[in-house]
């Protein structure tokens, strides 16, 4: 292991800083704020967090944990079970942590993914004590070469008092050169960020830090968890085909070219199915400017339909992972990984005119979208990067199945129980039944589009009745306020919204 580490680590005197995960975890004290690498189950520090969870069983401690986004290898689960997490931000997808958040045991701060390090840099989140960063190499100046994600790692390492590096020797050496690390200047003298196309490179291939801050180097060989994306289903394929027809119409109308515009797709089965659908579509020279590069990105690159993809992480299934990581040199010219502050930067998203495709839990008849809270109270995952893209993209698209829980819940409701993306940020809604193009429509026009094109036919009569009753009362955005959340009340009481139809 030391021999292989020698090839990856050029920092003079690095051997003196090698220690076990347990010894490195001992550097973390009760009450500290810790920033960890990891974004959409890719590139997380793997051994030190688990060592911390083990230690907490006999030596209880609580920390504030910040990451890029979600972690793999059950790290959030183990840290929650060991009661290590007092506060957690900005995103998670773990069922055990979700339960602790909803029980009020862990304070979860659900943030736009582009914003966390901006708040840290501006000292609005207090000071960062320790950063734990997975690296594929360390340069002679102590620069950290990340692995399968950049996330918030660069700013965490730069802002933390101490840095623990997990040097992962199982990562391909070809990762060196994959990343583009750029940190914006401090305000008020910040310069424009010169990304003008998905393939623009503006930074270094490593995270520059003062080498004396490296308090520990832990050698690891852990693997990222494979993605949990399901193969396309009939519903997701229908959603994809509605969207592809819509894009074809936009090209015919001269609003888009056959290269569309840079695509952003949220993680998950629907987004993956939509991106896969583009392989068969009449489009060419596609590009991505997104957060996560998933299997469909590499299928599009391999098909010749996509020329370049920019992201903050690579999250792949077992099979696609074999293909990509064993042959990274072949893809390296056509992909780049950036800090999430750059991949999700509102200014760049607006400049490039991104087509943003994200998933809703539910939407209401006027186009407000809830992506995070079940029945208005219970956190699912978090807003993630969807807000960064939805507010600023050229086309803001939300997709969802028209019902959930085998038809017991309608995903189209009179009033969403929580608003993540308001009516001003939503251009297009798509379900398996159809697509509602809301651009340039007033609320009363949008309601008709959404009910008739997207809602499940079973729930349409009840939505029509609600809307007609509301219109009789008047208003720019008509509502029957006493009934607006009655569908959710039915879901809470009966586990089903079917009673609103009867
Ligand atoms: N009411 C209650 N629950 C609902 C629901 C609704 N209207 N719609 C879906 N659900 C439930 C599903 O039943 C499922 O529950 P289960 O895990 O117990 O089976 C769960 O929500 C996930 O739904 P699913 O249909 O499997 O979709 P998904 O895996 O694509 O996730 C989101 C959908 C909205 C939860 C997910 O996309 C997300 O977290 N989005 C916010 C973050 C984001 O957009 N990031 C994008 C940039 S990466």
Automatic annotation (TrEMBL):
Any one GO biological process? acetate metabolic process
Superkingdom as given in the UniProt entry: Bacteria
What keywords sit in the KW lines? Transferase
Q: In the UniProt entry, which residues are flagged as the active site? A: 291
Q: Which residues form the Acetyl-CoA hydrolase/transferase N-terminal domain?
A: 16-218
Q: Name one Pfam family in it.
A: AcetylCoA_hyd_C
Entry-linked Gene3D superfamilies: 4-hydroxybutyrate coenzyme like domains, Acetyl-CoA hydrolase/transferase C-terminal domain, Glutaconate Coenzyme A-transferase
| Residues at which CoA binds | 266-270, 381, 385, 405
- Cite the Acetyl-CoA hydrolase/transferase C-terminal domain residue spans from the record: 323-466
GO molecular function list: acetate CoA-transferase activity; acetyl-CoA hydrolase activity
Give the family per the record. Answer: Belongs to the acetyl-CoA hydrolase/transferase family.
Database matches in NCBIfam families: YgfH_subfam
What's the name of the protein? Succinyl-CoA:acetate CoA-transferase
* Record organism: Modicisalibacter xianhensis
């Amino acid at each position: 292991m030391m021999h292989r580490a020698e090839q990856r680590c050029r920092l003079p005197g690095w051997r003196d800083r090698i220690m076990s995960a347990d010894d490195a975890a001992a550097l973390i004290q009760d009450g500290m704020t810790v920033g960890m690498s990891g974004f959409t189950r890719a590139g997380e520090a793997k051994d030190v967090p688990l060592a911390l969870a083990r230690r907490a069983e006999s030596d209880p401690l609580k920390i504030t944990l910040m990451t890029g986004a979600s972690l793999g290898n059950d790290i959030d689960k183990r840290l929650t079970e060991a009661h290590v997490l007092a506060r957690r931000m900005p995103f998670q997808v773990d069922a055990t942590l979700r339960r602790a958040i909803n029980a009020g045991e862990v304070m979860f701060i659900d943030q736009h993914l582009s914003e966390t390090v901006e708040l840290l840099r501006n000292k609005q989140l207090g000071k960062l004590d320790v950063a734990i960063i997975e690296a594929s190499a360390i340069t002679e100046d102590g620069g950290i070469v990340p692995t399968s994600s950049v996330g918030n790692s660069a700013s965490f390492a730069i802002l933390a008092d101490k840095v623990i590096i997990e040097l992962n020797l199982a990562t391909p050496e070809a990762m060196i050169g994959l990343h583009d690390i750029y940190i914006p200047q401090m305000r008020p003298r910040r310069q424009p960020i010169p990304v003008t196309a998905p393939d623009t490179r503006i930074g270094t291939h490593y995270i520059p830090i003062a080498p004396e801050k490296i308090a520990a180097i832990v050698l690891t060989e852990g693997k990222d968890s494979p993605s949990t994306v399901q193969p396309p289903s009939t519903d997701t394929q229908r959603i994809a085909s509605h969207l592809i027809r819509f894009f074809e119409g936009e090209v015919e109308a001269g609003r888009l070219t056959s290269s569309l515009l840079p695509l952003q797709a949220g993680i998950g089965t629907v987004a993956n199915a939509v991106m896969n659908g583009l392989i068969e579509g009449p489009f060419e020279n596609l590009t991505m400017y997104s957060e996560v590069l998933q299997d469909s990105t590499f299928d599009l690159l391999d098909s010749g339909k996509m020329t370049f993809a920019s992201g903050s992480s690579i999250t792949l299934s077992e099979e696609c992972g074999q293909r990509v990581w064993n042959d990274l040199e072949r893809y390296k010219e056509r992909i780049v990984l950036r800090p999430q502050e750059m991949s999700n930067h509102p200014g760049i998203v607006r400049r490039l005119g991104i087509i943003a495709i994200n998933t809703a839990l539910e939407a209401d008849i006027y186009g407000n979208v809830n992506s995070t809270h079940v029945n208005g109270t219970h956190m699912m995952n978090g807003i993630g990067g969807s807000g960064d893209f939805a507010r600023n993209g050229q086309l803001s698209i939300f997709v969802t199945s028209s019902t959930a829980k085998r038809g017991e819940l309608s995903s189209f409701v009179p009033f969403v129980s929580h608003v993540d993306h308001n009516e001003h940020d939503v251009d297009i809604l798509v379900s398996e039944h159809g697509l509602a193009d809301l651009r340039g429509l007033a609320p009363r026009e949008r309601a008709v589009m959404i009910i008739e094109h997207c809602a499940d036919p079973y729930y349409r009569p009840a939505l029509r009745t609600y809307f007609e009753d509301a219109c009789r009362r008047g208003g720019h955005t008509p509502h029957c306020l006493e009934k607006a959340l009655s569908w959710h009340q039915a879901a809470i009481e009966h586990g089903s919204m079917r009673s609103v139809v009867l």
